[in-house]
Amino acid sequence: MSREDSQSSAVRSVWRGLSASSSLEDALTGRYEALRDIARGSFAKVILARHILTGTKVAVKVLQKVNGDCLPFVVSELDILRGVEHPHVVRLLEIIDTPGTTYVVMEHMAGGPLARHIPEAVGLCEEEARGVFRQVASALGYCHGQGIAHRDLKADNVLLDGAGGAKLCDFGLACRFSAGEKLGVLCGTMAYWAPELFQGTEYDGPAVDVWSMGVLLFLMLTGCLPFTGASFLQAKEQVLQARYDLPSRLSAEVQNLVAGMLTVESTHRPTLQQLLGHLWLSQGEQRTPSPSAELLPRRPDTSILLAMLDLGYGLQETWVSVSTRRFNEAMGTYLLLHHQKTQGADCKVRVKPGRPQVGPCPSPSNPSSLTLDPRRSARGPALRSWPLWVHQQLLPEEHKPWGQRGSPRASLPNIPLCHVRASTPTVVPVSPLPCCCLSKSSQALASDPSSNFTEQYLAATRTPGRPRDTARGWRGVIWQVAACLARLCCCIQAPRTGPGGPNGVVPEPGGRTPPPALTGPATPHHGGQAHRRIFRNRVRVPWPMPTHS
Predict the structure, then answer these.
(1) I want to staple 109 with a disulfide (CB 3.0 to 4.6 A). Which of 72, 159, 303, 532 is the partner?
(2) Cβ distance 173 to 150 under 8 Å?
(3) pTM score over 0.70
(4) Fold for the domain defined by 1-107
(5) What is the CATH number of domain 113-295?
(6) Which residue in 69, 97, 152, 204 is the catalytic one?
(7) Are 203 and 193 in contact (CB under 8 A)?
């Protein structure tokens, strides 16, 4: 089978898969809501979808696999999209891979392709064309600097947003190259082909893109293509001779720029860096932003991380996904929130069902948790400003500061709770009561091990006529403490727990045993020596104790 037959067979197989599968959007269920088809190509189709959690519209490119494998140009496109980050290149958000289909989720450009905005046979004014062309040239120059040749530059592959900004898209025919490398694959749209492509020789990738840029600028200024041959031979003749007509109404600077790009000899064409320094592009008020103006930082934004925590995404999961550029579900959500924040759009977030939600605890000591931050702009994203310690506590070890690695820490600090008190009671300290201070009835109650000393003591010491409920609260606590101290002071006999004497107290080696327990007021014993009983099993106590002078 020839190469053309194999390619035709692959195209037919892809088209059968795209048309026969009525449930291609099933893989997006729960994450994206498919709205409608917006474009179709030979190997893919693009559908408009809505991100469920944020409500943001996205473009989903559906790439059908052949025999379970992605086509080679699909693999190359995904590899290039992962590494390209520029404010005027359509951003990749997420890649969803299934056994039969690959879904490439990208940002949606509400303005559509540039071709729809160019009046036929009239074109744009130079000021409008200058702004769009400058942005496209900046994006293409960035790609050349990264060793990427687009090879399919045309008005349909330049998308506009709602504010008129332009972004380069569709890297399906793009490839990587090294300095001085010649390419040999014929691809792209014939109306934008350079002379070396018509000649069938090897070509320089950036030089071919510069020629396509000349055709694009001609179309933007005039509303028609410069080479309109009815057949391949007529188009080839016009291109090889560089035969085209520019309207005399155009300025000399822009005519010079177009003539430089549409030079037949590829080595005489200017580079993208030289184009950006041209006099015509340097005019105007708006300057081209630097490539790092909207680059995704390696250190994720704390406020977006905490907003995603409310959506149910773990801090560590999001941090690792963004830092390593995994382009999974967590990174796709982060990029959408990051875009809303940088654009100043309202952030409409739905709570993700089935996931835990974490929010600040309202507290009188933290008024900011009770009301919105007054410094937040009315059109700013609905993202809270969270302290830096939140994501530092749950980061992977390699991303933590050096002094925090390996140290055990709580995931969150102490959160003050809300307590409503009518008044704070004053606790009166209670001094120990000696046995001699107790009444006869109290000593009798204390000497009875079977009695509930606390209850009976309270009943015996309660003032006649006072209600029983007055012993509750702090007064009851004071009485219970006093009762316990009195019980300890009176040396209540504890249950016998072991051999060797009463209550398991071991006598001194010499035959001398401790005196019996006291059941009344303390009395002198053995010449005024003080004695005490230790309520603990198998404790050796020297006896008699030293005499106090």
Answers:
(1) 159
(2) yes
(3) no
(4) Phosphorylase Kinase; domain 1 (3.30.200)
(5) 1.10.510.10
(6) 152
(7) no
